[in-house]
TrEMBL record, chain A:
Pfam families: CarbopepD_reg_2, Plug
Protein name: TonB-dependent receptor
Lineage of source species: Bacteria, Pseudomonadati, Bacteroidota, Cytophagia, Cytophagales
Matches recorded under SUPFAM superfamilies: Carboxypeptidase regulatory domain-like (SSF49464), Porins (SSF56935)
Subcellular location: Cell outer membrane
From TrEMBL, chain B:
Name of the featured protein: DUF4249 domain-containing protein
Highest rank taxon of the organism: Bacteria
Alphabetized UniProt keyword annotations: Signal
Signal peptide (from-to): 1-32
Pfam families: DUF4249
Length: 923, 383
């Protein structure tokens, strides 16, 4: 008892000491107040001292202060002045005074948080309460929401518009929020934050209530008084109970009101709720559940977007190109879910700042490290383990994020009894590192590095390894509120090696790589409320080693073959303008001009005219020196879209875009293989050109809770590559003799119904789409299917997807995922005949038949740990069953002659329900 | 770590399904294609001009629908000619079963040859002119044991470096025995001792290769084929139960012929893996006068070298010396019931000492080796 008493006493002493120390640093107050309004009282005190008041004018407007003060302490003065009211006050170390209604507050709150650069106080002596961090933030939010922010120097001229700009960030870790909506209701003016969380909005001068919404974050408002151009930094708090209200408030408006069409954005929270095979959130698989995205078979990683080939997707990871986003033959994507922020897929209406691929842009963005504290997360699934660490390097300025993931599948393979698999190995890992640094208010620097590596050997003598590496550096400079620029430098390299040593005479090492260096400058200029202009230029330098093979070991007689390296340079400039003609009508118009050169040094074969290109028709070989242009191609790529609002909840949009592609993948297999090679456009292989026109109707109903969209598109492709029967693609010195030119057309309608709020949310989509190819060759012998249009490998007319989440409680979440699609086209044998001692097959024209339809159901249950904010680690469990009905979906159908007989087979990959358990943690 | 052990069971089923489905044949099911109406009549030409024994053989047939159970029909009444470029024309003799041959030819290896075919319906077909390819000798045919089987390999080389592309065919002959060789046969109402020449306990079966075996040293600095795998034979079967022999025939191919056979092999023998190429129509070097009519098959010319290898049961490593497992029941037939058995029935041996009281018998599968398809006549080359 005695001890406790002493402790209390001690505390009391310290507290009074603290207050005393404070008071000494502040001037004492003198003054006669007689029924003075609170505002005048505040002005008087602020004039005498360097105290600064924060209060809500609404709660104090009826208050009159009557008090006479002579050299009195602020605490005494305020205590008297506010006596008998519901108002409380608190004074902090910096001389800020907070006047609040109802409950008392802690004066050490970092309210001056918004005045960047001032570190929040850690003095808790004044506090009589034990506030959790969450409650603190709630208080801050309320305070910030009621405060009136003056933007620009005060002036009485409130004519015309002014521009305010700033960043929207996550309050817990300082990460920028992409795609947050910043808007006012009257008149309805709104903008969306860009990839840096940056916004710039032009508003009529005067007082506004600025609303801010973002996915998974608490919506907030700011009272602003806009005098002139100025800055406002906004921080949003995470929705701590995302299970209750997962979604996407901002996107609701975007779909109808935004300019962009044919775009799907998924944040990592939505993706983590979906049930998936092998217990790992996989963005490539999630993207496949969106309308208009197809694949040739499960377990393959290639995406076919709106009837485009798998190599026609620009896959960007933090602005660096990813050539092979798959691990383990496509069972996993190389993107570690723990480091991801969101994924945007553009299927149409692609703006002028993107270029280089025909079909789509898949823009994958990783998070930035936590600016405020160290934290980590990780997980264990049946196949992989992963760990992510992040935190500040310099508090509030520099942060890092390091994520690593690896598999223990080698260990699993060794446990298997099958002799076939026991000798097989398969392993992979990937590592991500992001560093972001805030140099000052106007300059930010972002560094991103990424490595993925795969190695496998399948009971054969050949082992394979492939690796994707990339790095990017971005410097963002804000010139002023209206103009900012980003300078990006990037490096990407994809390569593989094959090693065979079973037969010492033929033992070899083979390798391939494609590498690109790119630099680009992008500018965004917010001209006025009606125009936002984007412009920039980019340079990409390609270097490919199409294949080297060399003997391995002394007894090998393998010939050393080094295919000539390929060089190319792709330059582009672009400009685009978002023009809001009226609140109802918006137009985007842009153009990109790309110029490509295929460069020496290189020996180029010449072929006889008038006959098909073949080895026998090579007439000459011409030598081009280093840096000499061998062939060049250029062209304009116009892009435009129009949005017209039919009402506040409905709009129609039209868009057109042309894309040009100067690098293509050579593959004559159904699925992408790790050993597919890439090829630059050259004198014989012309760049691919694609045009797409699309039309969409969008409607939100029931207070935006249900979104309906209907999009139709028509697309054509020129100079797509097809291959002659039996083409040899690897180590081919004259690949042009094995390819034929073809053109493609695709069209379709996508219907989507999406509910993003409420206990039950998710989407349903139906797609009707067709995709055709046609050989363009003057020689009948080269024409596939006699030169007629034929269905492409990924032509699947009907596709239905259902993705649903139901939240039983904040801790239990149930997800159901159903997928149906028409079987993909295949080529079937028509007849059999005897040759060489066995039956052989005569195949039909290409892709005239289909494999059986595809149908799959998956379920998963997420169980979150308890929701106590403060504990060592937060954990969650995911139980999932992939292919619940165990339907043996055909991956492929094929025929073989075995023992002189023809046998037909159907191969399925996941022919039975696959249960998985994943444990995730966060600290 | 507890995590791992706890879910180990799940891991296993998961991996077996996914990986086996991928790389093995675990998740394969038989598949019958939809009924396809095929109205195209496809003519098939399979021809080889053999310089080594100065002969030519051509087989003409037609393709049949996939689900047709019968043999493909042959083209028996055609006129087939071998044409030497700027030279003679030789008429081939048709045997009425689709085979056309000629022997004792004088083939000039410096010249080019082609086939000219006229069918009974008056359709005409020509092959391209082909070179007569010299073929190096087979260096050796070897075999090596593995865990439960043996693999046979062939080796060759060409110092001139001109051959490069090779095709192999082989003929396997193996000797095997029935589990219970019968000593007696019902002759004239009673079991009679079988003379040596009529014994049915030991047979020889001969089979031709069915796969397309092509190889190339294109990417090697010297024209060497080392350890090209021909076939894998599982231990414990009839093939290796007594003595096995393989006759390997080797031909050099032109690059075009090599491409043809490689494509044919890819489209009919190794399709269906995740990373296998798409099937395509494989066009040979025989053409119809009607350009729109596809013709299947190939004609080539050259030397053919051969090599024979014997492997007997006792040469196998001990762990592979496994006798075929069959369950055969032996019945005893008393003399008074022998009349139930017809003429020609085999019996193993008499029983009863000192006087015979009956004969032992088993199923004909267990006594007569010919039931499995072999013949009792020892091949001439069998030493």
């Amino acid at each position: 008892m005695n001890k406790l008493y002493r402790l209390l006493l001690c505390c009391f002493f310290l507290m009074s000491l603290g207050i005393a120390a404070q008071a000494q640093r502040r001037a004492l107050i003198n003054g006669e107040f007689k029924a003075t309004s609170f505002k005048d009282f505040v002005d008087a005190v602020e004039a005498q001292t360097d105290y600064h008041f924060y209060y809500n004018p609404k709660t104090t407007d009826s208050l009159k202060v009557t008090y006479s003060a002579q050299n009195q302490n602020i605490n005494v003065v305020l205590g008297q002045a506010l006596a008998g009211t519901q108002l409380h006050f608190a004074v902090d170390e910096q001389g800020n005074i907070f006047v609040t209604e109802g409950r008392d507050i802690m004066s050490d709150l970092p309210v001056d948080f918004f005045d960047t650069g001032v570190a929040p106080s850690n003095n808790t002596l004044v506090s009589g309460f034990d506030y959790t961090a969450y409650e603190k933030r709630e208080k801050q939010k309320k305070l910030a929401e009621s405060k009136l922010y003056a933007i620009g120097p005060k002036s009485s001229n409130l004519q015309g518009n002014a521009t305010m700009a700033g960043h929207v960030r996550d309050i817990t870790n300082g990460e920028p929020l992409v795609g947050a909506t910043v808007y006012i209701d009257k008149p309805l003016v709104g903008v969306i934050t860009d990839q840096f969380g940056y916004y710039s909005i032009s508003l009529p001068k005067g007082r506004h209530e600025l609303k801010i919404k973002s996915i998974g974050m608490k919506s907030t408002v700011r009272q602003i008084m806009l005098y002139a151009d100025g800055k406002l930094e906004i921080e949003l708090d995470q929705d701590v109970t995302p299970l209750k209200e997962v979604v996407v408030e901002s996107d609701k408006d975007v779909r109808v009101m935004g300019m962009q069409m044919g775009m799907e954005k998924l944040d990592i929270k939505t993706m983590k709720n979906m049930p998936l095979a092998l217990g790992e959130t996989d963005i490539m698989k999630v993207v496949l559940s969106l309308p208009g995205v197809q694949t040739v078979g499960e377990g393959t990683v290639g995406l076919n977007v709106r009837g485009g080939a798998t190599n026609q997707n620009l896959i960007l990871f933090n602005d660096a190109v990813v050539y092979n986003p798959s691990h383990l033959f496509g069972f996993f994507s190389t993107f570690n879910p723990d480091v991801l922020k969101n994924v945007e897929l553009y299927k149409s209406g692609i703006t002028a700042d993107y270029g280089g691929r025909l079909s789509s842009v898949l823009d994958v963005t990783s998070r930035e490290g936590n600016l405020k504290k160290f934290s980590g997360s990780g997980g264990i699934s049946p196949i992989t383990g992963r760990l992510t660490l992040e935190g500040p390097l310099i508090k509030e300025k520099t942060s890092f994020l390091l994520g690593a993931r690896s598999t223990y599948s080698d260990w699993i393979l060794r446990q298997l009894n099958t002799e076939r698999l026991k000798n097989s190995t398969a392993s992979f890992y990937d590592v991500n590192l992001n560093i972001s640094h805030k140099i000052n208010d106007k300059n930010n620097l972002y560094l991103s590095g990424y490595i993925s590596h795969d190695k496998f050997k399948l009971n054969t003598d050949t082992s394979y390894a492939y690796s994707d590496k990339n790095a990017s550096i971005k410097w963002k400079h804000i010139f002023n509120n209206k103009l900012y620029g980003v300078l990006t430098g990037g490096f990407s390299r994809y390569g593989y090696t094959m090693t065979s040593d079973l037969n010492p005479v033929q033992a070899f090492d083979m390798d391939f790589y494609v590498q690109q260096l790119n630099a680009k400058m992008d500018f965004s200029y917010f001209l006025n409320a009606k125009h936002t202009i984007n412009a920039g230029l980019s340079v990409v330098r390609y270097n490919l080693a199409p294949g080297n093979i060399q003997p391995k070991g002394d007894s090998s007689v393998q010939k050393t073959i080094r295919l000539q390296h390929e060089q190319g340079q792709e330059n582009a400039v672009y400009i685009g303008d978002n023009f809001e003609v009226s609140p109802k009508l918006s137009i985007y118009g842009g153009v990109r001009y790309s110029f490509y050169q295929y460069l020496g040094p290189r020996d180029v074969y010449q072929y006889a005219n008038g006959v098909p290109r073949s080895e026998a028709n090579i007439t000459d070989s011409v030598r081009y020196g280093g840096g000499k242009s061998i062939a060049s191609f250029s062209g304009a790529e116009p892009r435009f879209s129009i949005r017209y609002s039919l009402s506040q909840n409905a709009s129609v949009k039209v868009s057109y875009n042309r894309m040009r592609q100067y690098i293509q993948m050579l593959s004559n297999t159904t699925a992408i293989t790790p050993t597919d090679i890439w090829k630059l456009s050259d004198p014989y292989i012309r760049p691919q050109v694609g045009d797409q026109i699309s039309l969409g109707f969008y409607k939100n109903t029931r207070k935006h809770s249900l979104e309906i969209s209907l999009e139709a598109y028509y697309k054509t492709t020129k100079n797509a590559l097809d291959f002659k029967g039996g083409a040899v693609l690897l180590l081919n010195k004259h690949i042009e003799t094995d390819v034929v030119d073809s053109r493609g057309k695709a069209y379709g309608v996508e219907f989507m119904l999406k509910r993003s709020t409420g206990k039950l949310n998710g989407w349903f989509s139906y797609t009707y789409s067709r995709s055709f190819l046609q050989t363009v060759s003057p020689y009948a012998a080269e024409a596939v299917n006699k030169g007629d249009y034929y269905p492409s490998n990924y032509d699947k007319p009907h596709a239905v997807n259902f993705v649903g989440n139901y939240k039983f409680s904040r801790r239990f979440n149930f997800s159901l995922n159903m997928t149906y699609s028409t079987g993909r086209p295949i080529t079937l044998p028509l007849a059999k005949y005897e040759l060489g001692g066995s039956y052989r097959l005569y195949y039909s024209d290409r892709n005239q038949f289909r494999i059986p339809d595809y149908f799959r159901t998956d379920i998963s249950i997420n169980i979150e740990g308890n929701h106590k904010i403060r504990k060592l680690a937060h954990s969650s469990w995911t139980f999932a069953i992939y292919n619940l009905t165990g339907r043996a979906n055909a991956y492929s159908v094929f025929f073989r002659s075995e023992q002189g007989k023809v046998q037909g087979y159907k191969l399925s990959i996941f022919a039975q329900p696959i249960p998985t358990v994943t444990y995730n943690f966060k600290f | 770590m507890t995590m791992l052990t706890r879910y180990c069971f799940r891991l296993r089923s998961l991996f077996v399904c996914s990986l086996v489905g991928l790389f093995a044949t675990g998740c394969l099911e038989p598949y019958a294609p939809p009924a396809i109406e095929n109205t195209v009549d496809l003519f098939v030409v399979d021809g080889f001009l053999n310089q080594t024994d100065a002969s030519i053989s051509v087989r003409l047939s037609h393709a049949v629908a996939l689900d047709d159970g019968g043999k493909p029909p042959v083209e028996a009444q055609a006129v087939v000619q071998l044409e030497e470029k700027d030279g003679n024309t030789i008429l081939l003799y048709g045997d009425g079963t689709g085979n056309y041959t000629a022997a004792g030819l004088s083939i000039n290896p410096e010249h080019q040859y082609r086939l000219h075919i006229r069918t009974m319906l008056g359709k005409e077909y020509y092959s391209d002119y082909v070179d007569v390819n010299p073929t190096p000798d087979i260096d050796s045919v070897t075999w090596r044991p593995s865990a439960s089987s043996i693999t046979l390999y062939t080796n060759t080389h060409d110092d001139s470096g001109k051959s490069r592309y090779y095709l192999w065919r082989y003929t396997e002959t193996f000797q095997y025995r029935s589990p219970y060789e019968p000593g007696y046969r019902m002759t004239g109402g009673k079991p009679d001792y079988i003379a040596e020449v009529d014994r049915v306990g030991t047979c020889w079966t001969t089979k031709n290769s069915t796969s397309i075996l092509v190889g190339s040293s294109e990417r090697l600095s010297s024209d060497v084929i080392r350890d090209f795998p021909l076939t894998v034979i599982a231990a414990g079967g009839d093939k290796l139960s007594v003595r096995y022999s393989i006759l390997v025939e080797q031909r050099t191919l032109s690059k075009d012929a090599y491409t043809f056979w490689t494509e044919l092999q890819k489209t009919t023998e190794s399709l269906g893996g995740l990373f296998d190429p798409l099937p395509s129509q494989v066009v040979g070097n025989v053409h119809s006068n009607d350009l729109s009519e596809p013709v299947l098959g190939y004609f080539s010319a050259g030397q053919q070298k051969s090599e024979r290898l014997f492997i007997s049961f006792y040469e196998l490593p001990d762990y592979l010396q496994i006798y075929p497992r069959v369950t055969c029941q032996i019945d005893s037939i008393p003399l008074n019931r022998l009349q139930q058995y017809g003429e020609g029935t085999y019996f193993i041996s008499p029983y009863g000492v000192p006087s015979t009281i009956g004969y032992t018998i088993s199923s004909s599968f267990c006594m007569d080796c010919r039931v499995k398809g072999g013949v009792t006549k020892k091949p001439d080359f069998w030493k």
